[in-house]
Amino acid sequence: MNIGIYIYPEAEVLDFAGPFEVFSTARRLACPDWQVYLIAQQLMSVSARGNFPVVPHFDIHSHPALDVLIVAGGVHTDEMYNPEVLAWLKAQNNQVPLMAAVCTGVFILASAGLLTNQQVTTHWQDTAELASLFPALQVKQHVRWITDGKVTTSGGISAGIDMSLQLVSHLTSIETARQIARQMEYQWVEQAD
Fold it and tell me: What is the pTM of this model?
């Protein structure tokens, strides 16, 4: 199984590092065939929030086929209007069984047309803007994550860890997800709200 996490300049560090840790811990403890990759628009160092340099494994043209694609949040405005990235996300949506967004990554998925009228969530500070820009979406506040089966969105920053554990639970079992949370010494919020 291939899990890709899309990053970009000013991506929130925990938005991609938290899910990366969840899935790489799953690989180490229970799912040895899982691979976790960071993907960026170009295969070059990305400066995440706080000037944190990150080198992706692949660019959007060279990555392997994915089973899960997660879009990190952060300073997302440029990505919302990046035609190459939006076209790539649309193409991935036709191929990838599970899509997800951490925090403001939901804005990017919505801009790509991958979210229409379903329930979604994001960081509490951004819910009003999300509802204003995409009025057909049912934007929920005060929830850690929401899923419609194909697309899962999460609240801000650390909620991406809860969402990723939920995805592990969906892909394997609740026991495996609990084992990973315990290994990470993380208090997993198992329920969406």
Answer: 0.96
Closest CA to 100 of 87, 88, 115: 115
Q: Which residue range is the domain that position 46 belongs to? A: 2-183
Per residue of the chain (193 residues), give pLDDT as tens.
999 999 999 999 999 999 999 999 999 999 999 999 999 999 999 999 999 999 999 999 999 999 999 999 999 999 999 999 999 999 999 999 999 999 999 999 999 999 999 999 999 999 999 999 999 999 999 999 999 989 999 998 899 999 999 999 999 999 999 999 999 999 998 875 5
Identify whether 83 is part of a domain. yes
190 found inside a domain? no
* Count of domains for the chain: 1
Residues 6+ apart with CB under 8 A from 122: 73, 101, 103, 104, 106, 107, 130, 139, 153, 155, 156
